C-alpha cells in the first residue's frame, strides 16, 4: 500500500483509495470505522480481523453494494459514492470480480453458465476474454479442478467446495481490474485451497489485477504484498 501522495505521484489512479470511511447498521450500534488505505494497481492486500470487525462489510462497501455513513471511496480513479445505484452496478460488472462468502451463484444455471455470466452482463468483460466466454470458463474450471462432467450440471447438484471454486472462476473471467474475495477458501481442502490461491494470484499478476482478500486463515498472508488487520468494534 502507498500513501495518497505517493499514489498520485505515480500517475495512474490507485485501484482502491479509501479515506475516513465509516458505516453504521443502525443508530443503536457503534459505528464501524475503517483505516485509510491506498492500494496501487496490481497489488494484493490480505485483510484479517476478529469476527465483528467489519471485514465483509468493508468488501460490500468497496463493491458499492452498501452506502457508507461517511468517508470517500475511489476505485480506479472513480468516486463511486455519487453514482446512482444502476451506475454503481454497471461499474461493478465492468471492473470488479466479487467472490461472495455465500457464493451467490444462480441456482438454475449450470456451472459453466454461472462462470460466463459476467460476460453477459458486461460487454467490457466479454471483450476482455481472449476467446469465447464458454472456452474461457472451461479453462478456469479445469484450472480449479472442476471435472468436465460437472460443467453442464446445475450448481445445486455440486458440492459446497465445488460451488466455491465456481464462484471464484466467475469472478476471474474477463480480467476485472479488482478482485474482492470474502473468505474464498473456507470450504476448500488444503490441496484445492493452494490451487486456488496460486491460480488467483498468478492470474492477477499476469493481468495487473488488484486483489483484496479477506480470510481468518492467517497462514495465507504470506502470499500477499500487504496485510491489514481490522480491530474488533467495542461494545
UniProtKB/TrEMBL annotation:
GO terms for cellular component: plasma membrane. InterPro entries: AAA+_ATPase, ABC_transporter-like_ATP-bd, ABC_transpr_LolD-like, MacB-like_ATP-bd, P-loop_NTPase. The keyword Cell cycle does not apply. It comes from marine sediment metagenome. This is ABC transporter domain-containing protein. Residues 16-235 form the ABC transporter domain. Keywords: ATP-binding, Nucleotide-binding, Transport. The lineage of its organism: unclassified sequences, metagenomes, ecological metagenomes. It holds the Pfam family ABC_tran. GO terms for molecular function: ATP binding; ATP hydrolysis activity; transmembrane transporter activity.
Amino acid at each position: 500500500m502507498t500513501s495518497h501522495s505517493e499514489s498520485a505521484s505515480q500517475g495512474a489512479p490507485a485501484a482502491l483509495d479509501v479515506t475516513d470511511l465509516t458505516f453504521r447498521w443502525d443508530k443503536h450500534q457503534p459505528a464501524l470505522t475503517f483505516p485509510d488505505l491506498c492500494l496501487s494497481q496490481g497489488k494484493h492486500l490480505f485483510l484479517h480481523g476478529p469476527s465483528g470487525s467489519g471485514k465483509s462489510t468493508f468488501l460490500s462497501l468497496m463493491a458499492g453494494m452498501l452506502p457508507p455513513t461517511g468517508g470517500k471511496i475511489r476505485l480506479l480513479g472513480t468516486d463511486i459514492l455519487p453514482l446512482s445505484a444502476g451506475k454503481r452496478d454497471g461499474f461493478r460488472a465492468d471492473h470488479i470480480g466479487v467472490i461472495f462468502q455465500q457464493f451467490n451463484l444462480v441456482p438454475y444455471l449450470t456451472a459453466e453458465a454461472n462462470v460466463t455470466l459476467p460476460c453477459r452482463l458486461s460487454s467490457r468483460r466479454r471483450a476482455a476474454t481472449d476467446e469465447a466466454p464458454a472456452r474461457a470458463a472451461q479453462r478456469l474450471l479445469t484450472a480449479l479442478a472442476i471435472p468436465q462432467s460437472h460443467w453442464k450440471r446445475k450448481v445445486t447438484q455440486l458440492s459446497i467446495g465445488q460451488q466455491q471454486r465456481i464462484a471464484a472462476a466467475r469472478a476471474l473471467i474477463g480480467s476485472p481490474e479488482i478482485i474482492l474475495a470474502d473468505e474464498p477458501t473456507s470450504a476448500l481442502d488444503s490441496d484445492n485451497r493452494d490451487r486456488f490461491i496460486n491460480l488467483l494470484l498468478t492470474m492477477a499478476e499476469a493481468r495487473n489485477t488488484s486483489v483484496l482478500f479477506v480470510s481468518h486463515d492467517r497462514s495465507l498472508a504470506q502470499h500477499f504484498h500487504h496485510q491489514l488487520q481490522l480491530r474488533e468494534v467495542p461494545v
